[in-house]
UniProtKB/TrEMBL annotation:
PANTHER family: D-ALANYL-D-ALANINE-CARBOXYPEPTIDASE/ENDOPEPTIDASE AMPH, PENICILLIN-BINDING PROTEIN 4
Protein's UniProt name: CubicO group peptidase (Beta-lactamase class C family)
Sorted UniProt keywords: Membrane
Location in or out of the cell: Membrane
Signal sequence coordinates: none
Naturally occurring in which organism (per UniProt): Undibacterium pigrum
Beta-lactamase-related domain residues: 74-392
SUPFAM superfamilies: beta-lactamase/transpeptidase-like
One GO CC annotation: membrane
């Protein structure tokens, strides 16, 4: 049995919305399972700041073994979905630049409301790589730098926040090296409530200042500790640099720039005839409204709020594959390289692991407790895969990770 360490959102310890590092014992179907995500947190206690080089454009990109496609892929996805009784499952495979998407099942369990290829899925922490990508666009527009500090972007905060946070940089926030905890606790949120005005940007800044008044959990840049708050702060810094809300910047620099359609929140926020999230209740999937505390959700869109259909998400992954091979005009090769370069097992929105014969693999997963999504990116083979479902339960999400790994099995060295 090999531990698979995952990033999952969990409502525990009285906290309203929290990421927990959960280890699940999962059958080892291939060595790929061990590398895709487990490396993301196994080096958490380390203090290395020497980057591990990611796969570069100079790497000989091989033609991969044929992955499932067409009716064979659709049949395999439906077999997996029905055998595990998931409401809906969607899979995207990017193979040599071709994006292929399959979606099967129903928007709502025990109904005939068939899920559509255009239906959005809540992608949780897969948002993080998109946030880093948006900031990369601002960096290349010279509106911000990877080493811009909190004090530089928010000079008025110098007298309001702990001095330890003054020199924390954008890159450190995106690498989870800021000293910030994973989430805000209830006490901080309660302190923030009287300060909230309904103005999105102002309210996010008010909560950020309160969070930065607490002592760091560890010395900034000494190690990697997963933090939603860090990504929220990076999003706030982008708002200043880009002179717009985080959500508008994402629409402009990521969604519109890649010709994809995305939003934030939950698919069911759009009303009827949309996808619906589920939780497992007494062994059965039940349509479930968002369980994210609304007093906090607005603050962390940059960490986990993105909604996309998986065909559009495939276009995002394809651009990263192209960029790592020096074939994208969307960002420079250096920016793509930085995002997929590991420090203590984490890039900018990606966990990074190395595997003999395949080079570095970037992977992540995420959930906001009623949906689940997971990805793997293999630059040396010009291949990526993403799997998502409109459901979440801590006891069964490992099956989605196993399935994502199984789709890449033809890539494994024989």
């Amino acid at each position: 049995m090999t531990p698979l360490t995952s990033f999952v959102f969990d409502k525990t310890d009285g906290r309203p919305y929290r990421i927990e590092d959960r280890t699940m014992n999962t059958p080892l179907n291939s060595r790929l399972l061990a590398l895709c995500i487990c490396g993301i947190l196994t080096a958490c206690g380390g203090s290395s700041t020497t980057p591990v080089p990611a796969t570069t454009a100079s790497v000989d990109v091989q033609k991969p073994a044929a992955l499932l496609s067409g009716e064979a892929l659709r049949a395999e996805v439906e077999r997996f979905r029905s055998s595990n009784n998931f409401p809906a499952v969607t899979v995207t495979i990017i193979n040599q630049d071709k994006v292929e998407n399959v979606v099967t099942g129903n928007r709502e369990a025990n109904t005939n409301k068939s899920v559509q290829s255009t239906d959005l899925f809540q992608l949780g922490s897969l948002t993080k790589a998109a946030t880093a990508t948006m900031i990369g666009r601002l960096v290349e527009q010279k509106k911000i730098r990877w080493d811009s500090t909190i004090a530089e972007i928010f000079p008025a905060w110098r007298t309001q926040i702990r001095p330890e946070y003054m020199n924390v940089t954008v890159e450190q926030l995106l690498r989870h090296r800021s000293g910030l905890p994973r989430e805000a606790d209830d006490n901080t949120i309660l302190k923030a409530l009287p300060l909230l005005t309904g103005d999105l940007v102002s309210d996010r800044r008010s909560l950020a200042v309160l969070l930065l008044q607490d002592a760091p959990e560890y010395t900034p840049n000494s190690k990697m500790v997963y933090s939603n708050i860090g990504y929220a702060l990076a999003g706030l810094m982008a708002e200043v640099a880009g002179a717009d809300t985080y959500e508008n910047l994402m629409q402009k620099e990521v969604f519109a720039a890649l010709n994809i359609k995305g939003r934030f929140g939950f698919p069911e926020d759009l009303g009827v005839n949309n996808n619906i999230g589920h939780t497992l209740v007494t062994g059965n999937w039940k349509a479930t409204s968002s369980v994210v505390d609304p007093r906090y959700a607005f603050f962390i869109n940059a960490a986990g709020g993105m909604n996309l259909n998986l065909s559009d998400y495939g276009a995002f992954l394809r651009e990263h594959l192209r960029g790592l091979q020096g074939q994208s005009n969307y960002l420079s090769p250096a920016s793509f390289q930085l995002m997929h370069t590991s420090v203590d097992g984490y890039g900018l929105g990606w966990g990074i692991s190395s595997f003999p014969g395949l080079g570095n693999i970037s992977a992540h997963n995420g959930t906001e407790l009623t949906y689940y999504a997971t990805n793997r990116v293999v630059p040396s083979k010009n291949v990526a895969v993403a799997v998502a479902c409109n459901c979440y339960d801590a006891a069964v999400i490992g099956k989605l990770d196993e399935f994502a790994d199984s789709l890449l099995r033809p890539l494994l060295p024989q």
